[in-house]
Every structure is written in structure tokens, then in C-alpha cells.
Amino acid sequence: MEVTWKHYLLGIVTALGLMVIYQWISNPVYISVSGTGEVSVPATKAIVSLSLSETDSTPEGALIKVQNKAITMRDYMKQKGFTEIVTTQPQLIPASMIVSGMNGYQVSVTMGGSTTQLHELNTIVAGFYSMGATVVSQPTLAVEDEAKLGDEALSDALKRADEQAKQLARKNWKMFRLVASVEQADSGVTSTSTSEGTAEVTGGDTFKITKAVSVTYRLW
């Protein structure tokens, strides 16, 4: 086949076109956008922990007292619909380490569990104190399938970030975009301790899961 100047010209044009395409692909514009997604649903359960302590002149006596109190407290928790009840190992310390000059020993344990009886939380917490709890944690509200709700919030956050990226791409006359990196953060529910008389709890509150993302895009 005879090579003509048209073939040379076609080759040059093709090479130049490939170079332009390569330069275009290898030099994208980078932008960073953020998005926040939130899912709000009624809380379905509350997680509560409490501490028990007893003192006695002997270590054995203090241990027996706190174990009996823990058994009574566990029965009460079961009556109030608590599940997954856990009790820590007893901690024994000389009473003099708590109050200088005090004789005997103190044994303490921590118990915890979850209940779906949110409308009775105030009564339940008051009952813990009435039965001898030393400290009751502020109930932490939670929901079933929290992971699924977290995924929904994350999907919403990514969607909002992509909408911003789409708008910026249009303003800069960019037709294509590709995610380069994603950083995310989420909100958590914290638990605080309450002293007797201040254990005010609002049952049936809304449980919110928030996901925030920062997404870097490549634009062409």
C-alpha cells in the first residue's frame, strides 16, 4: 500500500489528538466539597448503667452484701424489661482509702443493660436509687438497626456533597467528575452520670444519627 501525504497528515493529527487527550486526562481540576446527612427516628431503647457498693468490717462481709444487692437489682431490672444485663467483677478497697480513718472494706460493682420501656425511664432510675444504687448513668438512647440508619445518613451526606460538586462542575464547564477521596465523621450519643435527685430523663426522645463527609473530586 502506497503511503501518501494524507496518511502522514492523518498520523500527525491522530498523534496530536492523543497528546491533547492525555494532557486533558492527566491534568484534572480538584475540588473539595462537604455534605451532611441526618436520620431522625424515635428511640426504641435506652442503655443504663449503675454502680453498687457496700462496706463491712471484713472483705468477705462486704462482698456478700454487694452480691446480694446485685441479685436484687438484677431481679428489678428484669421486671422493668431490661435485657443483656451485665455485672462487672467486684472491686475491693480498704475503706480508709475513701474516708481517712475509716475502718473496714468497701466492695463495688457496676451493672448495666438496655430496656425498651422508655416511658418509664424516670421511674426506673428513681427505683435504682431507692434500691441502693450509688450512681446511675444518664440513660443513652438508641435504636435497633443503628448501622442501617447510619448507612442511610451517610448516603444522604454523599448525595448532598455530589450535588455541590455537580454545581461547581457546571460553573467551571467541566463535564466529568470522579471521586478522589472521602473523609467522614459521625455524631455519637454521650452518656453522663447523674447524682440522686437529678436523674431527669425524657423517654421517647428522637434519636438522631448524623454523618458528615468531605469529598474531593477530580473534574474534567
List the helices and strands and how they pair.
Blueprint: H1 5-26, E1 29-42, E2 45-56, H2 59-79, E3 83-87, E4 91-94, E5 105-115, H3 121-130, E6 135-137, E7 140-142, H4 146-171, E8 177-186, E9 193-194, E10 206-219
Antiparallel strand pairs: 1-10, 2-5, 2-6, 2-7, 3-5, 4-5, 6-9, 8-10
Give the distance, in angstroms, between the N- and C-terminal Cα atoms.
40 Å
- The helix/strand class is alpha+beta
Q: Percent range for helical residues?
A: 25-40%
Total count of helical runs of at least 4 residues: 4
Describe the structure.
With 220 residues, the chain is of the alpha+beta class. Helices cover 36% and strands 35% of the residues. It has helices at residues 5-26, 59-79, 121-130, 146-171, and strands at 29-42, 45-56, 83-87, 91-94, 105-115, 135-137, 140-142, 177-186, 193-194, 206-219. Strands 2, 3, 4, 5, 6, 7 and 9 form a 7-stranded antiparallel sheet that branches. The longest helix has 26 residues, at 146-171. It is elongated, with a radius of gyration of 31 Å. Residues 189-204 have low confidence and may be disordered.
